[in-house]
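G., before I forget:
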Amino acid sequence: MKQLPIIDRAISHGDSIAVQSDDQRLTYHDLLTRSANAAASFLDSQDDLNEKCVAFLAPNLIDYLTVQWGIWRAGGIAVPLSHFATEKELEYTLGNSEAAFVVTTREYEDQMIALCDLIKLRIIVLEDIQNASENHLPEIDPARRAMILYTSGTTSQPKGVVTSHNTIQAQIESLVEAWKWQSDDRIPLFLPLYHIHAVINIVACALWTGAEIESFPRFNLDSIFTRVAARAFTVFMAVPTIYIKMIQALESMPESERLKVLDGFAKMRLMVSGSAALPAQVYEHWKRLTGQSLLERYGMTEIGMALSNPFEGERRPGYVGQPLPGVEVRLLSEKGEEITAENESGEIQVRGPNVFLEYWNRPEATQASFRDGWFCTGDVAVLEEGYYRIMGRSSVDIIKSGGYKLSALEIESTILDHPDISECVIVGLPDETWGEVVAIATVMQPGKQLSLEELQAWCQDCLSSYKIPRRLMNLEQLPRNAMGKVTKPAVQKQFQE
Ligand code: MLC
Ligand code: AMP
């Protein structure tokens, strides 16, 4: 039977280790057996899930892959959920994706049962799946939809970004070629498994090549440094905030320990930064410490990775390099004209097999995000001496904090439910560690007051922790323009005064 390419490749990687997580080691062969069992259970007595969405909460990588590949092999669309999400956020994702059922692990069973009971959704607990004696799995056309990753943007609710198996393959192959992934690579994973950085750049690329992933429950400096010092990794990928936190930690470590960790970093064959701008000083600082020139690249949930500094050749600080293999990039001016000269800024637009299919159930939003077949990223860049430099985003409503993309509109609409707040404006403020931090300016109901701590405590139930405002200003008179609209740049300025 014809298998999905990622499955075919896993068959050829056989008894190599795919994942190490705590004291568990999983070979490619184990992963194939487990995911076939999971697929048989998800199918129940059907022949094919026929692109039904299956949402899953399984943050441990071994469980995650068992379920993700199980869904794929049963013909479903995999919708990973965030374990940082509040119940409200999970309910939104389950409803919006029209999930047919939910898969989780024993650890999250109680939490998910409560939610699934409320919205009448069937739940499967991974540990309860029995070994199937025989698995009749369907043949899957790789043009079929494979995955939905939720992304926040210029709408008040996150949108589901749909990719097919072919899209995923194109995203993987481009990176495997550009960054010369090898079967003897070993990479740590500590980023969340519901964003493209971890899902494609780390996990999917590693498994495609037969490499090994060492999975950590979360980003923890001590455990990662211990393994780096043991020279456990050849490749490392992280967001700028992580490099900044590592620099701070390394500089306050006793010298004997620091030298071992620095040596572990120095020996790696590739270290990549992305998901947010890497400040040039951080690039230089990391190079001084470790001798490594971080390879900065640029991507987005909708397109995978588009631009990258070279594996071989000059890695220019402050720049994101050139189009990746198979990816076409153009800049469009505000007048809608393609920019062909250097030093003129325009919106980055992307075309190629790496680009997503659609926003789930949002045909107008999908249509609005393409122009003549090119996906409009909303990021502005300029080409200088052959390398692209990202200048910012065209929307003030998108905030990047710690590598997470946040929608100011989503946070505003959630916080407006607070009974004491009559108006609020969310902005991003520049921050050395987080890139940007979320800040809120409020107009309170008459006679009401609210401290930042009180607001943060109230937000716990409705916003994931990284979306919670870190700065608060009560602005009785929100700055408005001639049209009576609040101007966010003016709010940002007030915060910075
Ligand atoms: C947490 N804190 C923040 C914060 N997040 N403060 C300000 N802004 C934020 N965004 C605070 C907490 O409240 C806590 O405070 C302290 O910092 C530590 O919190 P934590 O949750 O323990 O932080 P940590 O685990 O260190 O998380 C940092 C991180 C994480 C960088 C590891 O943010 C992360 O995983 N980011 C990556 C997200 C990602 O994968 N993005 C890729 C998207 S895809 P206190 O007071 O309690 O100590 C994409 C496309 C592409 O972008 O191109 O890749
Ligand atoms: P996401 O939607 O979470 O996939 O985030 C994608 C966004 O992250 C892009 O649209 C950019 O704004 C930002 N981004 C990713 N990589 C970089 C980078 N190297 N430099 C600046 N911004 C980046």
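Residues 28-43 form the longest helix (16 residues). Residues 151, 195-196, 274-277, 296, 298-301, 320, 377, 379, 390, 393, 400, 405 surround adenosine monophosphate (ligand 2) (CB under 6 Å).

More on Monday.
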